[in-house]
Design goal:
Structural class: alpha/beta
Low-confidence stretches: none
Strand order of the largest sheet: 2-1-3-4-5-9-8-7-6
CATH superfamily of one domain: Brix domain
Distance between the termini: 128 Å
Shape: elongated
CATH architecture of one domain: 3-Layer(aba) Sandwich
Radius of gyration: 39 Å
CATH topology of one domain: Rossmann fold
Length: about 325
């Protein structure tokens, strides 16, 4: 196990905070590793899964002897690699006489095993066995559609668990806005029986439909395989509750004089102050104001004292 050390500087502290569990998760990385014995089919499956997850996956090609995910104490190495690479999803491949071409897909919480699904690979077809226009090949980093066909994904416990794990494995980073041109592929999972799923990878071809929305066609580009469920292990209830915690929305600040009604919707109260018309300033262009000014001017002139020269001028005008 890795020795627990306290950070000695701010940079190391920030790095540890990035790896710590978060209420709002960032994109999950996938760790792909193998056991002591694998087959050519299993190696091809892991290689092509790594190519599909390119950019958000880490592949280890060395053999690991001590990894036994379903046994007590056998998950120590897995947790070590999860902590070392900061990966929260892993794919472990091994083959044996009892379980040939075996894949274990699991998730971790706080770098401890959360849940596990073990599947067997049958009828595998690599990408090289499909012929299609290479221009339809999906771009690195594009977002996929994930389709689950069949009632078993809602009724059968094993298939419901496999669906949850596959969604986490294939969806990539969660985003808010999406451009239609960036969705160029689809993963199709079909429930054949209660323990068998047909998995295939298709490209999306956009064609004219006579409307603004184009018509889509699926072109199988591989890989494809049958996944037979062998074993699975669900998380315990306490761990599930801890891992499913979400950030609570901040309570909205109460707005004064605003209410809600079932029929009318949002209702508000508006308070209008009393209008003091007597104190309102009238515009300067008003005729009434001009008249009042003229009257006030003449009144002021009448009340002003008359000088000696003005009196002589007034007297002279009256004699003439």
């Amino acid at each position: 196990m890795l020795k627990v050390r306290t950070p000695k500087n701010a940079r190391a502290k920030r790095e540890l905070e990035k790896r710590a569990p978060k209420l709002v998760e960032t994109g999950k990385k996938t760790l792909i590793l193998q056991g002591t014995k694998t087959s050519n089919t299993l190696n091809a499956v892991m290689t092509e899964l790594y190519l599909l997850k390119k950019g958000s996956a880490i592949r280890y090609t060395r053999k690991n002897e001590n990894i036994r995910p379903f046994e007590s104490g056998g998950e120590t190495s897995l947790e070590f690699f999860s902590l070392k690479t900061d990966c929260s999803i892993f794919i472990y491949g091994s083959t044996s006489k009892k379980r040939p071409d075996n894949l274990v897909i699991g998730r971790t919480y706080d770098h401890h095993i959360y849940d596990l699904v073990e599947v067997g690979v049958e009828n595998f077809k690599p990408i090289s066995s499909f012929t299609y226009d290479k221009k339809l090949g999906p771009q690195v980093g594009s977002k996929p559609f994930i389709c689950f066909i069949g009632e078993g994904f809602e009724n059968v416990e094993e298939l419901k668990h496999l669906k949850e794990v596959l969604v986490d494995l294939l969806r990539g980073e969660v985003i808010e806005n999406l451009n239609l041109s960036g969705v160029d592929r689809a993963y199709v999972c079909t429930a054949i029986s209660s323990d068998k799923v047909f998995f295939t990878h298709c490209a999306l071809r956009l064609k004219k439909s006579g409307t603004v929305v184009p018509r889509m066609e699926l072109v199988e580009i591989g890989p494809s395989m049958d996944l037979v469920i062998r074993r699975h292990r669900l998380p315990n209830e306490g761990l599930r509750k801890e891992a499913m915690k979400t950030s609570k929305d901040h309570p909205k600040k109460k707005v004064k004089n605003v209410g809600q009604d079932v029929i009318q919707g949002k209702i508000g109260k508006i308070y209008v102050p009393d209008q003091k018309l007597g104190e309102m300033a009238l515009p300067n262009k008003s005729k009434g104001v001009k008249r009042e000014r003229r009257e006030a001017k003449t009144k002021n002139n009448a009340n002003e004292p008359v000088s000696k020269k003005q009196k002589e001028k007034i007297l002279h005008n009256s004699q003439n």
